[in-house]
Amino acid sequence: QESAKEHGLRFIFSSSRSSSSSTAHPPVAVNPTRPRHSNPDGGRRPRLLLLLRFGGGGGRGGAPAGLRDPRRGAPGPVRGLLRGPPQPPRAAQRAQPGRLRRLDRLPAARAVVLSAAGPHFCAGIELGGPGNPLTAGGADTVAAAEGLRRAILEMQGALTAIERCRKPVIAAVHGACVGGGVGVDVVAACDIRCCSRDATFVLKEVDMAIVADLGALQRLPRIVGYGNAADLALTGRKITAMEAKEMGLVSRVFDSKKDLDAGVAKIAKEIAEKSAWAVMGTKAVLLRSRDVTVEQGLEHVATWNAGMMRSNDLKEAIRAFLEKRKPVFSKL
């Protein structure tokens, strides 16, 4: 049995293959039970890709509200589903960055949603689980310490891959989101963070006599400020969805899980209808601006736009505005 921390890194990836169509399409909910190379609509491609079923635990459930379930024969474009076979936790950790790089190259992928199956986004680490590096037996040696260091770096890389994905990543959190089980660390690596009203957030590592090591301490101060980050990390206290919104950890709170699923689907669809180059450029500039001076950030965006302002997407956006219609942007 794997630990919850390892389970939290075992994503289920489902993706859409590209075709020649450039028409904007609604989001597609993918289900891991569908055969690997299905093609229910003859080749039209969606403009959006969603990653579902992160962490959590519990049943798989149906497609969230606002997302089509291709198993039920709903109309609309579905090109086909691609999912890797089940893997042990350590193999899943190694595969995580490669999978996100594959999604990065997928023309049909315009946005990514991270959600959870079961009652919680991430319920925390399983302290007594076999294979848990925090409780593993054996001699206290340099070799064991180096092995643990490699394991931590591997898990850090799996979460950093979320941030490095060029496509916007949206976190949809419901139930418990516990640091010490990768929950808060994952959320902090996402670009847009939403939750349901029943969501709670906690950095639990300090209560376990360890230092949070998967990115929360590095990313949270930039999101909620040093004072709020220190408050959460040093006390290990639990905060509600509304307090998380007040401090800026999440930008939107929905009344229920159903409303959350519908809300993030709407956000993702809005992003998918924009110019893919403009969306990716905006994310890249935002991330770079986080770590440089204002002057350096301005120089970076000037260089970016010097090339991007000659794109066909800009011309199409102007034409569409003048013609009072929705723009049809170029493919990646």
UniProtKB/TrEMBL annotation:
<dbReference type="InterPro" id="IPR014748">
    <property type="entry name" value="Enoyl-CoA_hydra_C"/>
</dbReference>
<feature type="compositionally biased region" description="Gly residues">
    <location>
        <begin position="54"/>
        <end position="64"/>
    </location>
</feature>
<protein>
    <submittedName>
        <fullName>Uncharacterized protein</fullName>
    </submittedName>
</protein>
<keyword id="KW-0413">Isomerase</keyword>
<comment type="similarity">
    <text>Belongs to the enoyl-CoA hydratase/isomerase family.</text>
</comment>
<feature type="compositionally biased region" description="Low complexity">
    <location>
        <begin position="73"/>
        <end position="98"/>
    </location>
</feature>
<dbReference type="InterPro" id="IPR029045">
    <property type="entry name" value="ClpP/crotonase-like_dom_sf"/>
</dbReference>
<feature type="region of interest" description="Disordered">
    <location>
        <begin position="1"/>
        <end position="98"/>
    </location>
</feature>
<dbReference type="InterPro" id="IPR045002">
    <property type="entry name" value="Ech1-like"/>
</dbReference>
<keyword id="KW-0276">Fatty acid metabolism</keyword>
<dbReference type="GO" id="GO:0005777">
    <property type="term" value="C:peroxisome"/>
</dbReference>
<dbReference type="GO" id="GO:0051750">
    <property type="term" value="F:delta(3,5)-delta(2,4)-dienoyl-CoA isomerase activity"/>
</dbReference>
<dbReference type="Pfam" id="PF00378">
    <property type="entry name" value="ECH_1"/>
</dbReference>
<dbReference type="GO" id="GO:0006631">
    <property type="term" value="P:fatty acid metabolic process"/>
</dbReference>
<dbReference type="InterPro" id="IPR001753">
    <property type="entry name" value="Enoyl-CoA_hydra/iso"/>
</dbReference>
<comment type="pathway">
    <text>Lipid metabolism; fatty acid beta-oxidation.</text>
</comment>
<keyword id="KW-0443">Lipid metabolism</keyword>
